[in-house]
Amino acid sequence: MIRPAYRLVELAMTPRTARTSLLVLALVAVFGAGLLIHALWSASARSAPAAAPSPQGTADALQSAFVGVAQRVRPAVVNIGTIQVARSRRAPFSPGQSDDPFFKDFFDQFFGSQTPGAPGEFRQPGLGSGVIIDKRGYVLTNFHVVKGADSVTVRLNDRHEFRGRIVGSDPKTDLAVVKFEPDHELALATLGNSDVLRVGEWAIAIGNPFGLDQTVTVGVISATGRSDVGIATYENFIQTDASINPGNSGGPLVNLKGEVIGINTAIVASGQGIGFAIPANMVKRVIAQLIDRGKVTRGWLGVSVQPMTAELAQSLGIGDPHGALVARVYPKSPADSAGLAPNDVVVTFDGTPVDDYHHLQRLSAEAEVGRTVALDVLRKGNKRTVNVKIAEAPEPTSPTR
Known about the structure:
It contains 8 helices and 22 strands. The chain is an alpha+beta fold. Mean pLDDT is 82; it is low at 1-15, 93-99 and 397-401.
């Protein structure tokens, strides 16, 4: 009696099971077809060439990048005004000498304006740029902008003016730090990595040329590692064709990321589109010491060096003209104690290949005082290693390295 009941139940479930199976098969078929269509579409999309961006789109993107950089960095760029009071032998200007105000303005432009109440003293104004690098009111600028200044005024992007004081300066790199006491939150600039710059990259100069505040000019990186320019002792300049004029000194040179890659410092007066900036990585090594101690402590080998020319290399029996030729070793110097001699050619400094004598100057100056470094030198064609303990550069500095 049980079996028929079981068979009835089994027979009753067969139609439902069939319908369920058909539904599952239909869903699997639809899902498989979807995967096939997606795979075919993806393969077609990968094989189709990407549409080239339109010239208008590229121009708009570049323009937006320039505008964005200007909006971010300009608030951190300041106008630096200086006054230098000097005594002059010329007689004080008297209005009775001429009633023409143009004559007095012309006279004061070239000889300075007379300081009221101080006969024979004249106020010589100066103008430059700077960039805020610290929320406490530290401003980075050029040494030549504030050199000899008796008073310094810092004018911000919002026209607020503050009295500034020179915290420290470094004539050898033409850098200085000025501090003012801010009364509100400041916009700051960020120092980038100048060692990764490539020739041809965009460069943006911001400053106050001829007193025209917040001027932005655009160019490219024309060259890096420029030396023998004759501006500072330690030269490793970035060259740019972004327009730089009197008053731009101390202002930032910026990349498209809005990072400061250099501090504008000089131009070639007889040329056009030839400006120079101190690289940001050199700036980083200097400003920390200027803020902390007001001066820069540098390493010293105690040698005088000269360029290695092809002719000198040949006469010394050296095939490669790279390196720095030792012209003189100063008595009782680290180099003298280590056994360096004239006509030695320094080819590596603590493992770093020496490109030329400027490179050796920078490497030795940046070395930590008290540290012992290994110098690979060529002497009469034979290579040897000399260990030198770096000393502090003496003051006042001499042309030694």
